[in-house]
């Protein structure tokens, strides 16, 4: 019955899109089949069943109407609604997600494409940890989580208006320790999609601009400053969340038209570290606020897709204070610039970041910044 309803939903969506569609507006329906796995020895529940699910993705294919389309390889923007069974109905339940995504082609020739897709959105887990009713689930502690999806696949154009898309997909659900427990769910799967393209972009539709006529960037080196805030728990079920304050400054050098290398310094104030030292008897002679502080020197790579950007950052601590888990850190960030930073010398932006040590997430943060 569930598959019947899913099929009816897909057919209805295809019908609506077919009635009136601008060039490059597509819709893809797909099915997942895979299996969640226990990626940490401390996970206390089993995931005995196979995971299955479905996804409906609305996407827009760019073809050169804006200056950055060609510069970024004519990417596709998408918004997906997804369902996935976790593999344990009693203690984990089901996953439902809303997933903004971007797709880029690695190879394109006639009827075949090889592509990669990154999606980052919100995922609802129906049966998180609960001290009384679900105490064995130490993978996810909250209903609302981040859902990150990576997809590598092939698109085969079997008809003018239809693509068949087999792919390998990896889905991750977690809340980055904002609510414990938080070991996260990892589900690799095979995904098979059928994309309906009522008004497809053809090779002759691409708008390509000669190098001499392309708009010039405003500056090659651009600085940015960021301030963000997050929360984390120290023990499962405590409902006591400690604030985390983060700030950073950096300089970014364009090394290609849509990629720049950054170097900077950041400061973190970890509220849970301050609470620990304040209530522990061994730190009376120390500055407790300093013990809760971390200073990091970092390098980062920023990939820019229009006003959106994805950053991967590697940092090295110059402090070694209480609760600091390792000598280095990893930070993944997404930014939305209110004006195109390629064309404007200064622009504000909003950012969402996740900081981790090794493979263990420490916190999510949301913040504001400015590039100048």
Describe this structure in words.
- The strands form 2 sheets. The chain has an 8-stranded antiparallel β-barrel. It has an 8-stranded antiparallel β-barrel with strand order 9-10-11-12-13-14-15-16.
- It has 372 residues and is mainly beta.
- It is built from 4 helices and 16 strands.
- The protein starts with a helix and ends with a strand.
Write the layout of secondary structure elements.
Blueprint: H1 2-19, E1 25-34, E2 51-61, H2 67-71, E3 76-85, E4 94-109, E5 112-125, E6 144-159, E7 162-174, E8 185-196, E9 221-232, E10 242-256, E11 259-270, H3 271-278, H4 288-291, E12 293-305, E13 308-317, E14 328-337, E15 347-357, E16 360-371
Antiparallel strand pairs: 1-2, 1-8, 2-3, 3-4, 4-5, 5-6, 6-7, 7-8, 9-10, 9-16, 10-11, 11-12, 12-13, 13-14, 14-15, 15-16
GO molecular function, one term: hydrolase activity
Protein name: Acyloxyacyl hydrolase
Organism: Aureispira anguillae
Compact description:
This protein is mainly β. The protein contains four helices and 16 strands. The chain has helices spanning 2-19, 67-71, 271-278, 288-291, and strands spanning 25-34, 51-61, 76-85, 94-109, 112-125, 144-159, 162-174, 185-196, 221-232, 242-256, 259-270, 293-305, 308-317, 328-337, 347-357, 360-371.
């Amino acid at each position: 019955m569930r598959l019947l309803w899913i099929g009816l939903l897909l057919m209805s969506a295809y019908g609506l899109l077919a009635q009136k569609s601008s060039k490059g507006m597509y819709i893809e329906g797909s099915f997942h089949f895979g299996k969640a796995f226990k990626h940490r020895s401390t996970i206390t529940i089993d995931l005995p069943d196979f995971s299955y699910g479905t996804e409906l993705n609305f996407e827009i294919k760019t073809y050169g109407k804006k200056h950055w389309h060609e510069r970024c390889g004519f990417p596709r923007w998408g918004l997906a609604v997804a369902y996935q069974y976790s593999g344990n109905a009693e203690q984990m339940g089901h996953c439902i997600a809303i997933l903004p995504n971007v797709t880029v082609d690695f190879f394109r020739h006639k009827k075949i494409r090889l592509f990669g897709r990154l999606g980052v959105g919100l995922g609802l887990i129906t049966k998180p940890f609960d001290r009384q009713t679900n105490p064995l689930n130490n993978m996810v502690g909250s209903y609302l989580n981040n859902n990150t999806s990576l997809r590598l696949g092939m698109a085969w154009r079997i008809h003018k208006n239809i693509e068949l898309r087999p792919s390998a997909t990896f889905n991750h659900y977690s809340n980055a320790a904002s609510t414990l427990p938080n070991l996260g769910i990892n589900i690799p799967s095979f995904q098979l999609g059928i994309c309906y393209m009522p008004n497809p972009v053809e090779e002759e539709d691409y708008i390509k601009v000669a190098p001499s006529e392309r708009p010039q960037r405003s500056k090659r080196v651009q600085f940015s400053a960021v301030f963000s805030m997050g929360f984390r728990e120290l023990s499962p079920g405590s409902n006591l969340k400690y604030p985390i304050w983060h700030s950073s400054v950096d300089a970014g050098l364009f090394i290609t038209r849509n990629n720049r290398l950054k170097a900077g310094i950041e400061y973190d104030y970890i509220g849970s570290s301050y609470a620990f030292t304040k209530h522990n008897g061994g730190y009376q002679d120390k500055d407790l606020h300093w013990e809760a502080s971390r200073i990091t020197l970092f390098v980062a790579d920023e990939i820019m897709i229009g006003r959106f950007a994805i950053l991967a950052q590697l940092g090295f601590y110059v402090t070694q204070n209480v609760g600091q888990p390792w000598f280095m850190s990893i930070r993944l960030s997404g930014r939305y610039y209110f004006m195109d930073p390629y064309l404007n010398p200064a622009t504000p932006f909003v950012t969402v970041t996740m900081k981790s040590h090794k493979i263990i997430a420490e916190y999510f943060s949301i913040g504001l910044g400015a590039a100048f």
